[in-house]
Amino acid sequence: MLAGKAMRNIRLGTLLGIPILVNPSWFVLLAFVTWLLAAQVYPGFVEDRSAVLYFGMAASTVVVFFASIVLHELGHSVVARAYRIPVRSITLFIFGGVAHITREARRPLPELLMAAAGPLVSIALGGLFLFGFWLAGANDERAFDVMFLWLGLTNLALAIFNLVPAFPMDGGRIFRSILWLVVRDYHSATTTAAWTGRFFAWALIAVGFLALLRVPVYVIDEWWQGIWPVLIGWFLENAARQSLVQAKVIRALDRYRVTDLMTADPPIADAGTSVAALARGVLEINPRISYFVEDRGRLAGIISSYQMMAVPQARWDDVTAGQAMIPSSRLTAVDPEKRLSEVLMEMESADITHVPVVYEGRVLGVVGRDRILGVLRQSGFLRSAQA
Ligand SMILES: [Zn+2]
User: Fold this and answer.
1) Nearest-CA neighbor of 38 among 146, 163, 191, 130?
2) pTM of the entire structure?
């Protein structure tokens, strides 16, 4: 959700059916970690060896290191899928890894397990590598042992950093779920956790700046390394602020139920009707029009102005409603009492503009994305141009 909008991701392959992607920004991190290991870390332990050996050690370590990060994200993903929350991808980028989990859990406990799974994987991996270090003989002047040691300590450090209760980091999500469990209020739990996240982010930025100004901050060895806390803090600050906006959006939407916004009994069109017959003269007057499309008396799909406009006007006479509609196989019917925030999230993840409202097997009406966005506009979240 946060990474890689601007640059195209490269697909490495799939794990458990989840695409593993690499954002081009990740190569900066790859280069930095490789350099750090080859030039700074390993020569300090295994002394007076060739640059080729250091580089070989660094190169093989980073492969395992980034595999560890993917496993961490896979930990989150496996729990998400156990709760039937779809996982779109796992992406490596400049600040590490991120699992693109399509939505949050609706209850605090699944959210807690989902957030905790990643750090637990990192702790397990850290323990495993340290065990490997011990098995190898724990000689920190020998190449093989030192690689195990670094991987072990780094995975543990990663787990600890991720467990800081700063939303939306893993620890912040755990913190939020616990608050949610205690106060039984999603909104206030998220707001509190997100503000904690922002304070932590500002603290990181401050520490980074102090280091860059060459003030000794103890946690950073070299002044120029202050750039990382500044960047990571800035990234976290953005993410935490977005979470706050998102929480407000959810609250604004959840004041309504589907029934409040639904268009009851929309007009019905036959699947064989041409788009021209539906659109011509109607779209200008009512751009929010939508039809149920029936094929031999059965609901076959929904067609709205979005789908009609997607057909070039020159072809309006040739294309039928049945061809242009969103077929019912892609539509997920919603209950009239469902929360609007959940409906909007489902629309966004399935990339559809309308959903039929169904109660006890009977189609009551249709709710359109534009009506939901209208609520957000009224609440001041969107400017009219963004409709
Ligand atoms: Zn994580």
Assistant:
1) 146
2) 0.73
